[in-house]
User: Which sequence fits this backbone?
């Protein structure tokens, strides 16, 4: 099977991009594209010899025009999969529809809890004991769409948003490359109910309790 081609969309820091690159996936990275010319992730891509392109949303009059330009740039690389990795622009339904089943996102919460922004602060405010991250296929509604994999972490006493974000981010860096690997290996499919089935993945048998009772 020929390697799949990926295009990765970023807006900033690019730590998930780094994790994806470090995972040595059976894939070719066609390009890293950012809407933000100052994104650190662009430099990461260039330093690895990967094409880094900018489609600056501020240069377009509206979302539709930006999405059309973004889609035209992506199409140059003929990707099998487009991975959003800290990409902060909301995409139009037309764009999302074009990449149906080929557009993944990582979100820093256990969806459907805490869609949108500021997930770590909101999790702390809500007093949840378990938080985490989700990789999902993108559908028109923001931060919804069939879930591929989630990782849960405990919320610890005294946690700050930053501490919690770092704990979650470490898990993002595990599950996002894993999900992309499954896609590249042809192991993801949607069942009739629109749920993701992962071929030959192991299911954990234990529960994460937070806090756990003394032993
Ligand atoms: C990650 O927490 C991701 O889940 C969210 O934005 C952050 C991006 O971080 N959508 P990075 O640019 O990958 O370092």
Assistant:
């Amino acid at each position: 099977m020929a390697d799949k081609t990926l295009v990765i969309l970023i807006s900033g820091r690019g730590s998930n991009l780094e994790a994806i690159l470090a995972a040595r996936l059976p894939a070719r990275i066609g390009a890293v594209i950012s809407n933000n010319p100052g994104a650190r992730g662009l430099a990461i891509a260039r330093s690895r010899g990967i094409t880094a392109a900018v489609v600056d949303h501020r240069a377009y009059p509206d979302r539709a025009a930006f999405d059309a330009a973004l889609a035209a740039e992506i199409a140059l690389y003929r990707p099998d999969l487009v991975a959003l990795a800290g990409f902060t622009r909301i995409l139009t339904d037309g764009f999302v529809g074009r990449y149906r089943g080929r557009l993944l996102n990582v979100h820093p919460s256990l969806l459907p809890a805490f869609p949108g922004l500021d997930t770590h602060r909101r999790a702390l405010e809500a007093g949840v004991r378990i938080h985490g991250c989700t990789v999902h296929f993108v559908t028109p509604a923001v931060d919804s769409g069939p879930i591929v994999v989630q990782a849960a972490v405990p919320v610890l006493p005294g946690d700050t948003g930053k501490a919690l974000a770092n704990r979650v981010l470490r898990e993002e860096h595990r599950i996002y490359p894993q999900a992309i690997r499954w896609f590249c290996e042809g192991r993801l499919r949607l069942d009739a109910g629109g749920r993701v089935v992962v071929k030959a993945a192991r299911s954990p048998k234990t529960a994460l309790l937070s806090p756990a009772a003394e032993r």
Notes: Residues 104 and 160 are 28 Å apart (CA to CA).
